Amino acid sequence: MTTPRYRLDQPREARRSLRGPRYDPEAFGVAAERIARFLGTARFLVYMTVFVAVWIAWNVLMPAAWRFDSYPFIFLTLMLSLQASYAAPLILLAQNRQDDRDRVQGEQDRAQTERTMADTEYLTREIAGLRMGLGEVATRDFIRSEIQQLLRELDRSEDRQADNATG
To answer: What's the start-to-end Cα distance of the chain, in Å?
Structure first.
């Protein structure tokens, strides 16, 4: 019996396995976050307090035939333990997802900060270049003073020529 040959240029067929039910991790994470947010509210504490008070009152005040969890309320303890055993992992999952979002946001903030710093450094260099360039540009007052000086020299030169011509 020969083993079948597999081609490396083609993907393998998906194996069927008994790994259990498949679920969407993103949808599960969103649901876990919603539950964890609810567990952290005053509304949940009020609901839970009312539930426990009604449970205890029912099992203390009702006739013995109607009681379903007699003192010391073993079934209530089991229910609360079960709720806590599910709440803790859901809260941890929600915290892990929030940590992931915070890390991504931090990376995006760092990248934005780096771009802002690069833009600021570029603008600083451009402003310095403009200042240096302006130092070499003649200002309006400088040009006026030079023209006035040239006009005075021309007037003196004309006066000398006129004096030389008459004299």
So the answer is: 134
CB within 8 Å of 106: residues ≥ 6 apart: none
Please name which of 86, 138, 154 lies closest in space to residue 94, comparing C-alpha atoms.
Answer: 86
Q: pLDDT of 50-70, one tens digit each?
A: 999 999 999 999 898 998 888
Do the beta carbons of residue 26 and residue 101 sit within 8 Å? no
Per-residue pLDDT for 116 more than 70? yes
Buried/exposed 7-41: b ≥16 CB within 10 Å, e otherwise:
eeeeeeeeeeeeeeeeeeeeeebeebbebbeebee
**pTM of the full structure:** 0.54
Q: By CB neighbour count within 10 A (0-12 exposed, 13-18 middle, 19+ buried), where does 94 fall?
A: buried
